[in-house]
Amino acid sequence: MKHIYQKGSNEEAPVLLLLHGTGGTETDLLPLAEMVSPGSSVLSVRGNVLENGMPRFFRRLSEGVFDEEDLILRTKELHDYLELASKEYDFDKKKVVALGYSNGANIAASLMFHYEGALKGAILHHPMVPRRGITLPALSDMPVFIAAGNNDPICPAAETNELTRMLEEAGAKVDNHWENYGHQLTRSEVEAAGTWFHRYFL
Asked: Which stretches make up the Dienelactone hydrolase domain (predicted)?
């Protein structure tokens, strides 16, 4: 997978797995990683799917309607890639925290939905519920930060609340952060993610 790996100065800090939104690239979220945990190593991956020339991590059938077959395939692809990358760059695959926005947040959530122990934690900016009707693996005390917008037309509050409930029922410790905006990333939610990350991991 096309990616950037940057070795950090703090080898005890978790590796940040950066997952961009639709139309983004592996460079988009690098400034967020610097704000959240400047000492962390960073693995930033570009989605392998193109939608009208825009990179994504999995196909969708329409706005908010995921192609579940492709989602499952691409989630496995990313999971397998993390194994390869941990060997290539010599980091502990059990100490990876995802930082994803929108489509990237959705595939990060899908990793948690499908693979026990795939992540040590996750920062999800404006995620949706990746799948319904499946049993999640145990997420025992996994810290998860979800940032959402009260006026987000793509990811309404009910979607955020449902995802929160599903993760908590699997054992995750979820912190929600709400902004009075739409689907865009805001500086204040990234700062809140940084405060949350320091509380749990540094």
From this structure: 78-183
